[in-house]
Amino acid sequence: MKYLRLLTLFTAAIILSWMLQTAGMILPWLFGAMVATVIFQRLTRRDTGFKKWMGDIGIFIIGIEIGSTFTKETIIDMQEDVLNIVLLTLMVILLSLILAKFFMKMTGCTYETAVLATTPGALSQMILMAEEEKRADLLLVTLTQMSRIVLVVILVPFIASVFSSGAPGIPDDAEPDITSVLVPEMFLLAAGAVMLTFVLKLLRFPVPVMIAPMVGVLVWNISTDHTFALNVEFMYLAQVLFGIRIGIQISSLVSRLNRRMVVSMLAQNILLILGTFVIVIIFILFTEHNFNDLFLSAAPGGIGQIIIVAVEMGANIAMISSYHIFRIFFILLIVAPVINIILSRNRRRRREDGEET
């Protein structure tokens, strides 16, 4: 019976995702799986049979896709604009940390929740860290990060279109699908990524299931000429698996949602997007880049959504990819570990205070 419920859930998620894709929605497979799961949980109120390792497969695939965008060409692009990339990334992250204080006052949430909810462009990483942090409100972190995706999809194209000077198009230098360039050595790449995942888990590294394949593919791209992008079907699968995982989390916690939380989430995310707009207005005075390219480079969303918007706006895909790839690595390799250390110290300090009292 449990397997039948799991099969029904997957079927419902795929059908709804396909319907949303047909309707022209961005990220339909992620949102479709989330909505289908929440509805399924509300109707059945039974265990879906969905296991954590299934969600990890989706995260692993996303890690591969992120790594595949990091080629020799993007590294060269980043070297030519490295100062701008670093400064703009730091300014956006600093803005998010400032808004975290505002978010705490509006919601009355913990410091851990505010930081994990407001860090931009790191939805899956922050959700995974929220799962491990007892003082973090998983519902608030998840819905704040997810609502940002919706607002980015709605607001960023509108703002960017006002300043767009290019024509919509598809990048002509896209990497070939992995199935068209498959070579035997790629099986070693897969095995190495799996082994690295276990090593990082032993080292308690943040989000090892995503970082391991990302690093593996990055090294592969730099050391070989067999660069690739994942077939779109793999990304559909990853979005469905991750969407179901998030949907289960939301459905188990949504009863705690109230008007104050909704208003706080909307206000925080809108302020983050508008604050980014102001940063770019100031930043553009000191660079030769146009506003549209800079704004899409700084926009607080995931690389997938932003690149889709960039293609529609006829923007500089290579430049925008470089900025977002750097921010992904900066958040994963620096911000996330620093947040993890801070939260660990806070946990240790609370335990010590408890022992003293």
Describe this structure in words.
The chain has 357 residues and is mainly α. The chain has one domain. It has 15 helices and no strands. It has helices at 2-22, 28-44, 52-68, 72-80, 82-107, 111-118, 123-132, 138-163, 185-202, 208-223, 232-253, 259-283, 291-298, 303-313, 317-356. Helix 6 (111-118) packs parallel to helix 8 (138-163), helix 7 packs antiparallel against helix 8 and helix 12 (259-283) crosses helix 13. The longest helix has 40 residues, at 317-356.
Write the layout of secondary structure elements.
Blueprint: H1 2-22, H2 28-44, H3 52-68, H4 72-80, H5 82-107, H6 111-118, H7 123-132, H8 138-163, H9 185-202, H10 208-223, H11 232-253, H12 259-283, H13 291-298, H14 303-313, H15 317-356
Helix pairs in contact: 1-2, 2-11, 3-10, 3-11, 4-15, 5-6, 5-12, 6-7, 6-8, 7-8, 8-11, 8-12, 8-13, 8-14, 9-10, 12-13, 13-14, 13-15, 14-15
